[in-house]
């Protein structure tokens, strides 16, 4: 079984589509209506569970709802907010940090508490904004760099445990992310979510003695 967060749209929805063709998938997100619509589209192999990942009780309920230990957890949840720093609103900055940093911490904390001694793979999807600085993306970069620091630190804590923690840094995709973030870009030449999902699934293939720990998916 696969657990995918942020699955109501974009990369998360595309991953749910691909993985549900071969295994049961639990999809999670904040938008109940979109989760239900995706479930209806993908069929019986998909189970929706709305969740506020910044809320401890909601995260606990999400994991309690799983019928058994997932083989893979893919965390795609997050949001964007852009603009020159001096123009950014305190409310929007706090929302950005909650949706990206707090949610990642709460999700990963619960996964580690439950599964660190099991062969579970946890995939933390960030952005190339966690690798390089970008003008007019200062707070977004700060949030993604924070998640990268979380991942790299928890990896050290998981040394000698069977749980694997994988960092994913996708570049620009043609998804609803941009319109929701308020940044207006011509995305017609960006990779689609389906393309990124296909590449990610291939990169996540592991062998008995090895796996790819850091994955960057650049657009062409």
Give the structure's gist in a few sentences:
The chain is an alpha/beta fold.
Give the SSE string: EHEHEHEHEHEEHEHE
**Rounded Rg:** 16 Å
Largest sheet: 7 strands, parallel
Our measurement of the CA-to-CA distance between the termini, rounded to an integer number of angstroms, reads 32 Å
Oligomer: single chain
Helix percent band = 40-55%
| Cross-sheet strand order for the largest sheet | 3-2-1-4-5-6-9
Average per-residue pLDDT, rounded, comes to: 93
Strand content: 15-25%
Sheet/helix structural class: alpha/beta
User: Which regions contain 5 or more consecutive residues with pLDDT less than 50?
Assistant: none
Number of strands: 9
Shape: globular
Helix count equals 7
Structural features, described:
The chain is of the alpha/beta class and 220 residues long. It has helices at 10-19, 32-42, 56-64, 90-115, 138-157, 177-181, 193-203; strands at 2-5, 25-29, 46-50, 72-75, 121-125, 164-170, 173-174, 191-192, 214-217. The strands form 2 sheets. Strands 3-2-1-4-5-6-9 form a 7-stranded parallel sheet, with helices on both faces. It has a two-stranded parallel ribbon with strand order 7-8. α6 (177-181) links the parallel β7 (173-174) and β8 (191-192). α1 packs across α7 (193-203), α3 packs parallel to α4 (90-115) and α4 runs parallel beside α5. 39% of the residues are buried.
